[in-house]
Amino acid sequence: MRVAESLNRALHEVLADDSSVRVLGEDLLDPYGGAFKITKGLSSRFPGQVLATPISENGIVGVAGGLALAGGKAIVEIMFSDFVTLAFDQIVNFASKSVSMYGRPLRLPLIVRCPSGGGRGYGPTHSQSLQKHFIGVPGLAVYEVSPFDDHRELFGEMLARGEPCLLFEDKILYTRQIFEDGIADDLFRYDVLPQAGQVTRVYLEDPEQADCVIIAPGGMAHRALAAMRTLLLEREITCLLLVPRRLYPFDVAPLSPLLERTGAVAVAEESTAGGTWGAEVAQQVHSRLWGRLRRPVSLVHSAASVIPAAAHLERDVLVQDTAIVRAVQELLP
Amino acid sequence: MTELRVPKLNNNDTEYLLVEWLAEDGAEVLKGDPVVVLETSKAAEELVAEVDGVLRRTAEIGATCVPGEVIAYISDDSAPPPTAADREPTSSGPVITAPAQVLIDEHGVDPARIRALGKKVIKRADVAALLETGVDAGGDSASSSPETQTRPLPAVQRAVAAAVTRSHHTIPAAFTAVKLDAGPAIARARVLSKEARALIGLPELLVSAVASLHEQFPMCFAEPMVADGPGGDLAVRPSPAPNVGVTVDVGHGLYVPVLHGADRLSLKEIAQRLTAYRTKAMRGAFREEDLAGGNIVVTLHTDAAVLLAVPIIFPGQTCALSLCAPQHEVALDSAGNIVKRTTVTLGLAFDHRVVNGREAAMFLNAVRKAITA
Asked: What does UniProt give as the signal peptide span (chain A) (predicted)?
């Protein structure tokens, strides 16, 4: 099953299970079913729960936030995550504060879905990974879709938090198959660490035996796997990949034993350089494991540049598997 | 027996979904019949049979297929379709790391011994341990380190290779070039671009100029052929309309899409179609009809340092032109004053069996005039 289909199924189940859930967004009525078809079929099956809106991200998220605060549950689709900045005020100044600033905790079950990332030649305004701008906002959780995840469970977890969540969905995943039965490919297997907040752990044969740990969100999974294959076959370097389901809040403590064992950690993400999620993770790793690290945590991210539309220029800017290979090699000279 | 392979349908996806077979397994299909529907992340695309014959499917509905993969065979029933056993890789042996492979090659280790280790991944240490337990007798420390292993060319480049090799073997080509004072033409193109609201430059002017000379120089657009089968006399088949191929290479390989009936196209239309072709090249979205039916080629050499380029004549054609990058130079005007001017080199490679130097020069000069007019 492809990731797009898996997300679509999950949304169908969410709406069927809970009639208080509303889905809002642009162009998501059938037969179009959203720009990436993630909301396909929802409006036909649940006409009362799906609301197509004008192009007004600020308005959509405002309505959804109000709806969630008033006892409903809301899932918003931002057609391209680049435009979530238009709703920044509603997310940061209204929704995330409302859960705590009225003197008693209030529930605000809201998910803002953000198709993000480049690699498809959509240019500077439709290719960004803006996760980093939402890291560290009190009352706001940031998630990222991964091909290892159970997406029904993921939506359930986010709605159950009772506070606003952003869900970044790397567009390149939509057409990829989801991984099943603990098998990533012919070389690598995976399992999930529930105690670490559902972090997926991808390993060669024995998760306890690795030379280096790569921490990367779901959109990077295929690039990380490609890098791990190259490192293994060319240099006999074995990596352990950790894919967190929730990017923020993120607690590195349960992962410490794994990180400590190798003493070599790289964080990979597609956000552009500077003030990134990876830097936040690295800071936590340094604070906990200083003295047991062989080298400072390596950060892999896209260049500090707008994202070009031309494929060959875009490649130069965005993180490729080769960048992860380089970073790991530098950690293990 | 013809393979039905999954083409590269777009640049977004690395794999497609097989959503529907339009012809039954074992059905007779005719060339051009749609047989299967593949779904990309954006669209559904039909593939057609390239030959007449009996369809033998090798992939199921719902299968994920990647560009280049064979999903069916179309046979004339003279040969049985390959069985699953033929298609499977011969053995799914262990994955061997490069350092391990070097050691294996150095010592000529028997692959059976490697397989016998029963490991998923063979590392250098595994091979070293194997060697300690007894070196293979007579193992000659031969060759193929990973650096020297051959790598296959991509499909587009293999097609280019086949065409240029055939051209080189079969077409006795000659080459003539002229220098063109491009300043006025570039200025004119700039004005035309504004009027037409389309990007018109020297390439567009050249395509238009070449097309306009179709009637005047029919031999330059003709198809050379051997009459009465192999060994017969050389003959030419004139072409009814100028179909001008233009080289496009945006980094994914060389394509020569064709502007059909280019003499009937305005400069604006030529510019629009070339732009559309460049977009298709970016996406790898060319259709067969975009690339077929050309009878002359214009090759563009836009790298600023290229002074002169000798194009390869496409098999089945007589002429190929090359347009090189504008160069700035100092020249003397009619009054003897020093002036700055911009020139380009315009080259013509021609099949000397059917076109002679005099006609080539006349054709080139006529093109030059038409551009600078």
From this structure: none
CB B1 within 8 A of CB B81: yes
Q: What is the pLDDT of residues A49-72, one digit of tens each?
A: 999 999 999 999 999 999 999 999
* Interface test with chain A among B121, B123, B147, by most A beta carbons within 10 Å: B121
**Chain A residues touching residue B250 (CB < 8 angstroms):** 310-312
Q: What ipTM score was computed for the predicted complex, to two decimals?
A: 0.78
| CATH classification (class only), A3-170 | alpha beta
Chain A residue with the nearest C-alpha to that of B13: A175
Q: Are strands B70-75 and B2-5 parallel, antiparallel or unpaired?
A: antiparallel
Please tell me whether the overall predicted TM-score, pTM, comes out greater than 0.80 for this model.
no
- Planar angle of CA B320, B324, B329, nearest 5 degrees: 145
Q: What is the pLDDT of residues A92-134, one digit of tens each?
A: 999 999 999 999 999 999 999 999 999 988 999 999 999 999 9
A236 → closest Cβ in B15, B120, B123? B123
Q: What is the average pLDDT across B45-58? A: 87
